[in-house]
Design brief:
Layout: E1 2-6, H1 11-22, E2 26-30, E3 43-46, H2 54-60, E4 67-70, H3 79-96, E5 101-107, H4 125-140, E6 145-151, E7 153-155, E8 162-165, E9 172-174, H5 175-187, E10 194-200, E11 203-204, H6 205-210
Parallel strand pairs: 1-2, 1-4, 2-3, 4-5, 5-6, 6-10, 7-9
Antiparallel strand pairs: 8-10, 8-11
The protein binds NADP nicotinamide-adenine-dinucleotide phosphate (NAP).
């Protein structure tokens, strides 16, 4: 498949692109950095700024893309422009281009405001509000074949290959396991139009996804 990864230079994006290339996909990665991120014949790069106008974003997206991943993020600065407005513009541009599949990396409890007073979330309220409405837009205002992966805290630690989905704890994730889960979502048709939370746990990733 031909896949667009928005946020290819990020911690998750880097692992995700590596896994998609290993799975023999053709990958277009976005970054505002000039240097080419991956030396692979199946990799090409786009200088995309999602704070640009929606039409400009749309013009940069090729027509024959099979799936779009959104793994970009503001890191806490510019949350409105990047995590909310930027994200929604990429959804609109994807849909207007006639591309159906859109896989969003979101954050645990993005759609469950009752959890927002929890430690670790309360300090990130503005970011959470942005992810909340971006995810809501994807579910309620687009006709995209979405999957929203709501990950608990991202940690730079070794992959375990095992996760828990949709429990009551925010939990923590190896970044590599989040990338593996995102890559596996592409091959799991049952994840279409689903929102799920994840953290490292007890079940092999493919088996956990199969239960959705
Ligand atoms: N941190 C956590 O514990 C946690 C937990 C759950 C979910 N998440 C979500 O996971 C996302 C990815 O995390 P990460 O650690 O991999 O992020 P990261 O390393 O900070 O990477 C951020 C990515 O976003 C891109 N980006 C930022 N501003 C942009 C803009 N204006 N236009 C286009 N691209 C832009 C960056 O691209 P450039 O190369 O152009 O700078 C980079 O590829 C986070 O943003 C967050 O929403 C995080």
């Amino acid at each position: 498949m031909k896949i667009l990864v928005i946020g290819a230079s990020g911690r998750v994006g880097t692992d995700l692109v590596k896994q998609l290339l290993a799975d023999n996909h053709q990958v277009i990665g976005t970054t505002r950095q000039e240097e080419k991120l991956f030396d692979d014949d199946n990799y090409s790069q786009l200088d995309l700024d999602i704070t640009a106008e929606k039409d400009a974003i749309q013009q940069q997206i090729e027509q024959d893309i099979d799936a779009v991943y959104f793994v970009a993020g503001s890191g806490g600065k510019d949350v409105l422009e990047v995590d909310l407005h930027g994200a929604v513009k990429t959804m609109q541009a994807t849909e207007d281009k006639g591309i159906k599949r859109y896989i969003m990396l979101s954050t645990v409890f993005s759609l469950d405001t009752s959890k927002w007073d929890n430690p670790g979330i309360a300090d990130l309220k503005e970011y959470y509000i942005c992810k909340h409405y971006a995810d809501q837009w994807l579910v309620n205002n687009s006709n995209l074949d979405y999957t929203i992966v709501q990950a608990g805290a991202l940690k730079e630690r070794a992959a375990t290959g095992k996760i828990t989905i949709n429990d009551d704890n925010a939990g923590e994730n190896s970044i590599a396991d989040v990338a593996t889960t995102l890559a596996a979502v592409l091959n799991a048709d049952n994840t279409n139009k689903k929102v799920f939370s994840m953290h490292n746990g007890e079940t092999a990733i493919d088996a956990a996804l199969a239960k959705l």
